[in-house]
Amino acid sequence: MKNEDWLRSAVVYQIYPRSFADGNGDGVGDLAGIRARLPYLAELGVDAVWISPWYASPMADGGYDVADYRDIDPLFGSLAEAERLIAEAHALGLRIIIDLVPNHCSDQHPWFAEAVAAGPGSPQRARFHFRPGRGTAGELPPNDWQSHFGGPAWTRVADGEWYLHLFASEQPDFDWDHPDVRAEFEDVLRFWLDRGVDGFRIDVADHLAKAPGLPEVRDYRARDANDSPWTDQDPVHEVYRSWRALADSYEGERVFVGEIWLEDRDRFRAYLRPDELHTAFNFPFLSTAWDAEALRTVIDRTFADHGPIGAVPTWVLSNHDVIRHVTRYGRADTRHSWDPVTEGVPVDLALGRRRARAAALLTLALPGCAYVYQGEELGLAEVEDIAAELIQDPRWPRSGFTDRGRDGCRVPLPWSGDGAPYGFSPEGATNTPWLPQPPDWAGFSAAAQQGDPASTLELYRAALGLRRTEPDLVAGEFAWLPAPDGVLAFTRGAGFTCLVNLAAEAVELPPRSSLLLASGPLTGSGLLPGGTAVWMRTA
Ligand code: NOJ
Q1: CB atoms within 10 A of CB 405
Q2: d(Cα 470, Cα 462) in Å, to the nearest integer?
Q3: What is the DSSP string of 286-301?
Q4: What separation in angstroms does the CA of 414 have from each of 86, 143, 168, 254, 423?
Q5: What is the distance between the alpha carbons of residues 147 and 207, in angstroms, rounded to a whole number?
Q6: What's the CA gap between 212 and 230, in Å, rounded?
Q7: d(CA 132, CA 136)
């Protein structure tokens, strides 16, 4: 077994390519934009970049509907450009993790087009889940499974058969019992490993295998139910064992991170066995309220889950699927929830931002691998007022226009300037950004924050810098310190202490040799105010 040491303390920056930077002026982010901003990422101090899907795609789900796993969508660039991007990132010391989408493809993928054309009973259909319908004329879907985006998980084709799609109807699920599917994905892995990628983020990693016979369930919306027949079926582990062996046969440390929302801890841990995935996202941490006790519990649980099996814990606050944590932490209920209806729920963004800055210091001081979602380092909030006719997320139509979906965390980033496109697109761009940017984003641009010690960008830079220069932050043992109610305090090694005040009242700081970093100003008398965190050298 090879070691995966780089991941053990890495900070991984997530790029959602449509929204990161637009190099060619068409209003959509692309590889040219990413390449131009690699120095920004290196300077920010991250170790790796995870790029959400960049493959050829009709973009029914922002690229999570893949038509060709071995090519780049022309909207984003070309394969040659992806190869250059990987080389340039490596030259800057940045590793590249790409997004692999194995549960489903696009309805424009050649295999699916062939399957539809070949008709019922054909070998081409056996690579997907095609079934006759129920009812006297097959007019009802084969079962009552529901799509995660709303509506039935089945769509009917012209000859009367139905196919399964756990997401949009443009995203047919592969049948992972089929040997062609397994062989194809091993080949896709090789294709990208040969091109030097350092790892893969695996989309809905626990969904690939389905229970035999696709049995009915009563509580079909219970995403985390361990008995749901589309989630966490044992044969999926064979897939990851073979992928791990394949990745380990390559030079360097090529890694996997699974997108796994499973609640059951034993089942979750099974994916992190030494011959399976290296890591999985810590969604319980992301989902936890801004509450000291709740966070302490989830942090302890994370260590308990990972420690005994030697797996690397991860820490994540935001991604392209959830409400940005500045907004979440500014609400009365600070938990992440899939309940999409947040319109009209009051939010205090100043409070959310203060807490988000403290949460950054908490997250970046914990041992393990931390994720930063693009724009989080700029302190961006969710954009909640996108006009209905401009919403692109398939969840909007599929929910019968009740769930506005995830566009609010995918608004193109502000890089510079006083108004849209805020440097997202170059001067003289032909199109406006694919989603509208708020009129008050000038102060949030990277250029506006650069060099301002009070800015969130400089807070992240300082924190990421210290993660590299303070040896205790890299490798020091973690231990809780006694702390008043509402306060989290812990040490790393002999010389580093992090204190996070989640209470309303200010608290005293412990004795220290130096204050390394604070997420906000201390009180006039040197106390740590509520919603504020500090890093200290204590030896
Ligand atoms: C999870 C991805 O993160 C999300 O953006 C996507 O819509 C679904 N999987 C389907 O691929």
Answers
A1: 21
A2: 12
A3: HHS-S-HHHHHHHHHH
A4: 24, 45, 30, 32, 6
A5: 12
A6: 10
A7: 11
Ranges of residues in the chain whose predicted pLDDT is under 50: 1-2, 223-224
How many angstroms separate the CA atoms of 372 and 460, rounded?
A: 10
Name which of 290, 300, 376 is nearest 336 in CA terms. Answer: 290
Closest to 437 in 3D by CA, of 450, 456, 424, 452: 424
Neighbours of 504 (CB within 10 A): 9
Q: Which residues are catalytic?
A: 203, 259
Which of 61, 147, 286 to mutate to test ligand 1, by most ligand atoms within 8 A of the CB atom? 61
Rounded Cα–Cα distance for residues 291 and 110 (Å) = 49
Q: Whose CA is nearest to atom 8 of ligand 1?
A: 64
Amino acid in the structure at residue 203: D
Backbone angles phi, psi at 168, to 5 degrees: -70, 160
Question: Residues 311, 315, 316, CA angle at the centre, nearest 5°?
Answer: 135
CA distance 456 to 7: 25
Structure tokens, 78:
């070309």
Query: Rounded to an integer, what is the distance from CA 223 to the centroid of its chain?
Result: 17
Whole-model pTM?
A: 0.97
101 in contact with ligand 1, CB cutoff 6 A:
yes
* CB-count exposure of residue 387 (10 Å: 0-12, 13-18, 19+): exposed
Strand partners, 199: 97, 255
Q: What is the signed CA dihedral for 39, 42, 46, 51, rounded to 10 degrees?
A: 40
Going along the chain from its start, the domains and CATH numbers come out as: 5-101+281-449 (3.20.20.80), 110-164 (3.90.400.10), 477-537 (2.60.40.1180)
Is the CB–ligand 1 distance for residue 65 below 6 Å?
no
| Per-residue model confidence (pLDDT) at position 72 | 98
CA 106 from centroid of its chain's CA atoms: 20
Residue type, 404: R
Q: Is 202 in the pocket of ligand 1 (CB under 6 A)?
A: no
**What whole-number distance in Å separates Cα of residue 416 and Cα of residue 457?**
13
Substitution site in 18, 69, 100, 167 for ligand 1 pocket (most atoms within 8 Å of beta carbon): 167
Alpha carbon distance 132, 138 (integer Å): 6
Distance between CA atoms of residues 229 and 221, nearest Å: 12
State which amino acid sits at residue 531: G
User: How confident is the model over 466-488, as pLDDT tens digits?
Assistant: 999 999 998 899 999 999 999 99
Angle, to 10 degrees, between the axis of helix 456-469 and the axis of helix 31-44? Answer: 60
* Short-list 320, 298, 258, CA closest to 63: 320
| Å from CA of 501 to ligand 1 middle | 34
CA distances (Å), origin 57, targets 141, 175, 360: 27, 20, 34
CA geometry: angle 34, 38, 41, nearest 5 deg: 115
CA distance linking residue 448 with residue 378, whole number of Å: 10
Q: What is the pLDDT of residues 201-244, one digit of tens each?
A: 999 999 999 999 999 886 655 544 557 899 999 999 999 999 99
How much is the pLDDT for 520? 98
